[in-house]
Amino acid sequence: MKARIHVTLKNGVLDPQGKAIENALKALGFDNVAGVRQGKFLEVDLAPGDAGAAKAQVDDMCQKLLANTVIEDYDIEIEG
Amino acid sequence: MRSAVVVFPASNCDQDVARALEKVTGTAPHMVWHADSALPEVDLIVLPGGFSYGDYLRCGAMAAKTAIMADVVRRAGAGTHVLGICNGFQILLETGLLPGAMLPNANVHFVCRDVHLKTERTDTVFTRHYENDALLRIPVAHHEGNYFASDQVLDDLEGSGQIVFRYADENADITEDANPNGARRNIAGLINGRGNVLGMMPHPERAVDDAHGGIDGLPLFRSLLDALS
Q1: What number of C-beta contacts closer than 8 Å exist between A and B?
Q2: What are B47's strand-pairing partners?
Q3: A23 lies within 8 A of chain B by CB
Q4: Which of A5, A48, B78, B135 is the most buried (most CB within 10 A)?
Q5: How many Å apart are CA A67 and CA A6, to the nearest integer?
Q6: B203 is a catalytic site residue
């Protein structure tokens, strides 16, 4: 069983790295780029079990360590 | 004054702050390794600068979850004084001992130079040897010092006088140009409501000797010695 977690900056939180990437894309000629936000992607392998319980557990992981909810949102998908 | 410096993997200012403490207090601090589960009885705990755990995940995130930090949080709750410098400040934010979070510097560069700081509180255990509104020159060296908190939290911090240091220009004016990292409201250092936990991005331990090019960090350590002895 695998958990896939996207951690992204909340709306309204400045993303200096995303802005730098946006500028680099424009410098490469991608003129239609209107914005870039950089985030994180994590995969957590879990022992097989109940998907609902796994999601609740991963949510707890996000609250305690994987995301900083002052500045970040997260989204969890459980597979298999 | 009895003090301890917590040393994490990739802390790199632990010796600097130990020297500053020894120079001012006459006593070497306990150096406590991150894998230890408890601190000795001390009056002051210092979380030094560096790149604990390689800044993995977020600056300070891994260090904040160690057993030794659980003891630091307990001690802070019991009234022990805690000073977090640079990465130590980031760790304090990640533990929730201080509010807010750090983002990468607005210009995406590592900034390593002297900055001017305006001292907004001189009635704390950490700053009582500074003059009111004193303008200090102290080095910063960080990539993630762009302090962020919501408007509500920032208003609360200002209302309760918890902003201790702000980035200023050489005339002590709080300007955008004087802000080295984009920190909201030019915040360089914060204290908790109880007044026993201070976090700051600048490095006072790098300004305690004429050979450093300045000694504006000395009064901070003298304040602690005076208050906690």
Answers
A1: 39
A2: B84
A3: no
A4: A5
A5: 9
A6: yes
pLDDT, chain B, mean: 97
pLDDT 10s digits, B151-162: 999 999 999 999
Using an 8 Å Cβ cutoff, are B59 and B69 in contact? no
pLDDT band, very low/low/confident/very high, at B37 (cuts 50, 70, 90): confident
Average pLDDT, stretch B71-76? Answer: 98
CATH number at residue B67: 3.40.50.880
- State the fold for domain A2-79: Mth169; Chain: A , (3.30.1280)
3-class DSSP assignment, residue B136: strand
CB B186 within 8 A of CB B178: yes
The structural domains of chain A, with segments of one domain joined by +, span 2-79
Q: Is the pLDDT at B29 greater than 90, yes or no?
A: yes
Tell me whether B57 touches chain A (CB under 8 Å): yes
CA atoms of B170 and B112, how far apart (whole Å)? 17
